Amino acid sequence: MVYLQVSGKVDEKGEVVNFSLPDKKFFVFKLPEDFVVIFKNQGNTYLKPMGEISIKNIFGSTVADFKVNAKERIIFPDNSQLFDVAKKFDKPPFAFGLYKAELALKWGERQNDILKSVWFLVFPWKTVLIAVIILLALLFLATKGVKKYNQWIIKKARESRS
Fold first, then answer.
1. 83 Cβ neighbours under 8 A, 6+ residues apart
2. Could you state, in order of their start, the residue ranges of all structural domains in the chain?
3. What is the DSSP string of 9-59?
4. Are strands 112-122 and 27-28 parallel, antiparallel or unpaired?
5. Cα separation, 41 vs 30, whole angstroms
6. pLDDT digits (tens, 9 = 90+) for 60-102
7. I want to staple 40 with a disulfide (CB 3.0 to 4.6 A). Which of 31, 80, 92, 103 is the partner?
8. What pTM value is reported for the model?
């Protein structure tokens, strides 16, 4: 296909209608691997928005990057497009706490841009449960060990007196 622009007033206008995690979740159990991005072309010419999503921890360090519209889909005037934004981690990085996903899109000949963000909380309950069980077991063993040691010390002290 060939896309042509005819002479006349060009209006490159667009907006992100939705930027969120699937099902608009806030609480997740692992670092998300996909996002929902819906872009609407409100101008009078076709647009090809492209950009990325950066996931940052609360300290501002980037944990992961996702490409948006890597297939370079074109959106015609008065239309919306749902972009599939997915990244499959070979091994998902360990994540715990509050994170921010920042969407940065650019489009048009004048390089219009838009920035959006969404916050989410990662709580890996399986990992936390295993850690709590291990800590409880260590605490139990430590208290038993201290009791046994104290009994041994008392026994030694009694034997040395007699």
1. 37, 38, 39, 68, 69, 73
2. 14-123, 125-162
3. -----EEEEEEESGGG-SEESS--SEEEEEEEE-SSS-B--EEEEEEEETT
4. parallel
5. 33
6. 999 888 899 988 899 999 999 998 777 777 777 788 899 999 9
7. 80
8. 0.75
